[in-house]
């Protein structure tokens, strides 16, 4: 008897029930298309109520494991796929819980319940997979593909946001509608980061000693830690209030610290994502020691932050000259 599968099925049914209940009883906040705060308060992810995402996950999980219990057969690649999906949902819920503690958000117990259920499901699936490391080794091609997808989403989203800022700031202000667009793109970056974390751990577990001995790998993990912290600042502190980024004459002295941090976070994000990309793709970087790579990265961060502040100062000076 596959008891872990029974636990997965039970948690999935409970999850669906709670998700449907929360979706039907949720506060119907009228979400303004040009207000990023409304998207956060309404608990939307990529303009979709997060309960619908949860219902979809628990629905897939219940169908898959009901089928496995009926035929009394398990499929390793399907178990691994569902484990990755469960972990993705769990980390997405961590993001939603984090957003609840921003000024624009609101904590909801349902989110915590869904997180706990998804973690239980993930652990139950993991417990059912014998020789987990070997399964990961066999699936390395697929986890590498997921890793690359995460990099594409994160790097692409970051690049787009930075270019958007340059474009939008031609008018010396980010409008509410433009802020919503960038908030949505920042959520795509979050998905990319989640994929990177999950696939990165999966790849790491296939050769723990080898990766721990790699300075290039350790440096990449350091960069991803910076990306994660920087992403938290971006999504919790900046994204909900991007329309405050205004360098027009009446707003020059308003929210100055917020503007400085916003420009710096954008610079850190760009440098860090590209650093992670090059560390992953350029094998010749393996010849450098961790300290050398770290110093180079810190120098790049310092230069990028300085350039971002110079860019802000230049635009402010340009506005003042027009007065």
Automatic annotation (TrEMBL):
Alphabetical keyword list: Membrane, Transmembrane, Transmembrane helix
Transmembrane segments: 6-23, 53-71, 77-95, 107-126, 146-168, 180-205, 217-240, 261-282, 294-313
KW Membrane (keyword) present: yes
Keyword Transmembrane helix among record annotations: yes
Domain of life: Bacteria
The name this protein goes by in its record: Uncharacterized protein
Species this chain originates from: Anditalea andensis
């Amino acid at each position: 008897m596959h008891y872990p599968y029974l636990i997965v099925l039970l948690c999935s049914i409970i999850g669906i029930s709670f998700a449907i209940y929360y979706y039907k009883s949720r506060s119907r906040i009228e979400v303004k298309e040009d207000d990023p705060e409304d998207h956060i308060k309404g608990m939307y992810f990529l303009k979709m109520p997060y309960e619908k995402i949860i219902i979809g996950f628990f629905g897939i999980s219940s169908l898959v494991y009901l089928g496995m219990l009926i035929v009394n057969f398990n499929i390793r690649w399907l178990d691994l796929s569902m484990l990755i999906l469960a972990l993705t949902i769990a980390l997405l819920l961590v993001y939603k819980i984090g957003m609840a503690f921003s000024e624009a958000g609101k904590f909801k117990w349902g989110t915590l319940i869904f997180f706990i259920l998804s973690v239980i499901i993930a652990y139950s699936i993991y417990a059912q997979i014998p020789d987990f490391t070997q399964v990961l080794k066999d699936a390395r091609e697929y986890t590498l593909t997921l890793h690359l997808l995460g990099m594409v989403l994160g790097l692409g989203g970051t690049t787009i946001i930075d270019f958007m800022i340059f474009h939008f700031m031609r008018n010396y202000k980010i409008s509410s509608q433009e802020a919503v667009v960038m908030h949505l793109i920042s959520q795509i970056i979050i998905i990319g980061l989640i994929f990177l974390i999950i696939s990165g751990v999966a790849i790491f577990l296939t050769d723990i000693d080898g990766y721990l001995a790699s300075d290039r790998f350790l440096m990449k993990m350091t960069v991803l830690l910076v990306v994660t912290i920087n992403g938290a600042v971006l999504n919790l502190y900046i994204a909900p209030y991007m329309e405050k980024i205004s360098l027009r004459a009446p707003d020059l002295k308003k929210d100055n610290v917020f503007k400085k941090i916003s420009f710096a976070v954008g610079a850190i994000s760009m440098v860090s994502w590209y650093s992670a990309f090059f560390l992953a793709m350029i094998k010749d970087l393996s010849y450098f020691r961790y300290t050398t790579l770290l110093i180079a990265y810190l120098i790049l961060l310092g230069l990028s932050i300085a350039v971002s502040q110079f860019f802000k100062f230049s635009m402010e000076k340009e506005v003042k000259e027009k007065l």
